[in-house]
Design brief:
- This is Flagellar hook-associated protein FlgL.
- Keywords: Bacterial flagellum, Cell projection, Cilium, Flagellum, Secreted.
- Belongs to the bacterial flagellin family.
- Residues 4-140 form the Flagellin N-terminal domain.
- This protein is of the alpha+beta class and 405 residues long.
- The protein folds into three domains: 1-33 and 386-405; 36-189 and 283-369, f41 fragment of flagellin, N-terminal domain (Up-down Bundle); 191-282, no CATH class.
- 53% of the residues lie in helices and 15% in strands.
- It contains eight helices and twelve strands.
- Strands 5-12-7-8-9 form a five-stranded antiparallel beta sheet. A three-stranded antiparallel beta sheet has the order 6-11-10. Strands 1-2 form a two-stranded antiparallel ribbon.
- A hairpin with a 2-residue loop joins strand 3 (163-167) and strand 4.
- Helix 1 runs antiparallel to helix 8 (372-398), helix 2 (43-97) packs antiparallel against helix 7 and helix 3 (104-125) packs antiparallel against helix 6 (290-301).
- The protein is elongated and about 135 Å long.
- The two termini are 21 Å apart.
């Protein structure tokens, strides 16, 4: 077989170029630390690497979303912590206000204290987060949650609850509408007694006791009304939920216990006048707005007590506010408990996500990253092979028919 000079040169050049390419490829891996720098380096491995990188990016996105969720939930929790403190202060002020020996000046001072609590609650209800979005206005992030005058505030947001996808199979709500925080009660809320605003007698309800919480009518709304006055006074009880009259024109005596259906009873003291009435409700919307409850109590405390009727109005208002604060505090604590559950769930998901992130990075590294020891060895061998190819070509290049053996 004859080998032409051109063939020898071409083979020698190609061998050198092949070895240079190999040295360059291994050198690139050493420089980048990666075994796969482009799909052609390992097509199958590159496809696996792409899938793993996408999964890792999704996991990182969920981690970022969880961080956002934790920030929003923690912001709400901080506000509700202040609300809890404010309600505790309101309870203390109401206990002080129930002291019958206070003067008008003393009550006015307590009214100022309670007004401060009211302002604190209103500030929390209308609070905004770091982005300037209303915390308790639902989807209406640019709205003021509660608007109106003291005692007549209305919720101006909506009932929306923003959700974030914090895991592949879980979404978490990250806000509570103000109506469910400041104008709602739990299922276990206490009954609240409301004296009609037109009452002119001196009656007060001294107690409101649960007889049987499992009674079929427990939870209904009852109305207690009086007819006549003095020794001829009578009372009637109507279940306003069913419309049934439970007691009709029974003789009234101050301090007696009056049954309100099968599960509730109250004790009324004082002298009624014709037409005086009370409503006993559990979870009524008019009783649930703690902002209005405190504002109305402040207004009543500032009115002078100069008659038995005025004293009765004050006592009934304070008693009503006490139960409203209790109900509101229970509701706020329930909301906070729910927030705590969500934050705990996010912590668990973070731990799972962190573990997955480590696993993803390890798997990506196994496919993508180069084995430095092996690569250095291959690089040395490739350089030796290149040098050998260069030397061989150089030796062959010098040979001719005229060369001396």
């Amino acid at each position: 077989m004859r080998l032409s000079t051109n063939t020898i040169y071409a083979q020698g050049t190609q061998s050198i170029l092949d070895q240079q390419t190999r040295v360059s490829q291994i050198g690139e891996k050493l420089a980048t630390g990666k075994r796969i720098n482009k799909p052609s380096d390992d097509p199958r491995g590159a496809a696996q690497l792409l899938d793993m990188q996408q999964a890792s990016q999704i996991n990182d996105q969920y981690a970022s979303t969880r961080s956002t969720a934790e920030t929003q939930l923690s912001t709400e929790e901080n506000q509700l912590n202040q609300v809890t403190t404010a309600l505790d202060s309101a309870k203390q002020a109401l206990v002080q206000a129930s002291n019958g020996t206070l003067s008008n000046a003393d009550r006015d001072s307590l009214a100022n204290k309670l007004d401060g609590v009211y302002q604190q609650l209103l500030s929390a209800a209308n609070a905004k987060d770091g982005n300037g979005d209303a915390i308790f206005a639902g989807y209406s992030s640019s709205a003021t949650a509660f608007t109106g005058s003291p005692g007549n505030l209305v919720y101006s947001g909506d009932q929306g609850q923003r959700e974030l996808q914090v895991d592949g199979s879980r979404r978490i709500t990250v806000n509570d509408p103000g109506s469910s925080v400041f104008a709602a009660t739990t299922a276990n809320a206490k009954y609240v007694a409301t004296a009609d605003g037109s009452n002119s007698g001196s009656t007060t309800y001294a107690s409101l006791d649960v007889v049987a919480s499992n009674a079929s009518d427990f939870g209904d709304t009852f109305k207690l009304s009086f007819s006549g006055s003095g020794s001829s006074a009578t009372y009637s009880v109507v279940d306003q939920t069913t419309g049934n009259t439970l007691v009709s024109n029974a003789a009234y005596q101050s301090g007696q216990q009056i049954a309100l259906g099968s599960g509730l009873q109250t004790t009324i003291k004082g002298d009624p006048t014709n037409g005086d009435s009370y409503t006993f409700a559990k979870g009524a919307s008019s009783d649930s707005n703690i902002l209005n409850a405190l504002a109305n109590t402040v207004a009543t405390l500032r009115q002078p007590v100069d008659s038995p009727a005025a004293q009765a109005k004050l006592t009934n208002t304070i008693n009503r506010a006490n139960r409203q604060v209790d109900n509101s505090l229970d509701n706020v604590l329930s909301v906070r408990s729910n927030l705590g559950t969500k934050l705990s769930a996010l912590d668990s998901l973070d731990n799972i996500g962190d573990t997955q992130s480590v696993t993803d990075k390890q798997n990506i590294s196994k496919i993508r990253d180069v084995d430095m020891v092996s690569a250095i060895s291959d690089f040395s061998l490739a350089k030796v092979a290149l040098q050998a190819a260069q030397q061989t070509f150089s030796s062959v290049q010098k040979m001719s028919l005229f060369s001396q053996g």
